[in-house]
Specification:
Layout lengths: L2 H9 L2 H69 L4 H10 L3 H13 L3 H10 L19
Length: 144
């Protein structure tokens, strides 16, 4: 009898089958444990990365909103100090502006424009178009 035949015969015994089954079970348990551990580590890493990105994005957005609020107040304060009659208009325009660069530009102009009428026109240009304005009068183009 050859060694291969002996091994094949041993594999057929109940004890050998039990050992093989136990080995498979242990291998499966080790594989599952290692897979869980690797999956957990990968999941934690990905979660940290996504959390960091989300936190950075939220922080930037909050910073922008805070900057917009401060600069809106500054615009209204400057206009109120220079031309108090335009305070309400300045508040409306400031609220309508959501772009920080536009708000900063307008604030700079509010501080330097020499007269109230030019500032009024500039503030009015930054108000949203209103839907409740009456339509313009129809024109008669000679049609009868």
């Amino acid at each position: 009898m050859s060694l291969d035949d002996l091994i094949a015969e041993l594999k057929q015994t109940d004890a050998a089958r039990a050992l093989i089954q136990e080995g498979r079970q242990e291998g499966l348990q080790e594989g599952l444990q290692q897979g869980r551990q690797e999956g957990l580590q990968e999941g934690l890493q990905q979660g940290r990365q996504e959390g960091l990105q989300e936190g950075l994005q939220q922080g930037r957005q909050e910073g922008l909103q805070e900057s917009l609020q401060k600069n809106r107040r500054l615009l209204v304060d400057i206009v109120s100090a220079r031309f108090s009659s335009l305070s309400e208009l300045a508040a409306l325009a400031a609220t309508a502006i959501s772009d920080l660069d536009t708000l900063l530009m307008l604030t700079g102009q509010a501080a330097t424009l020499p007269d109230a009428e030019r500032l009024r026109a500039l503030l009015l240009a930054h108000l949203p178009a209103s839907d409740d304005q009456p339509p313009s009068a129809p024109t008669d183009h000679g049609s009868r």
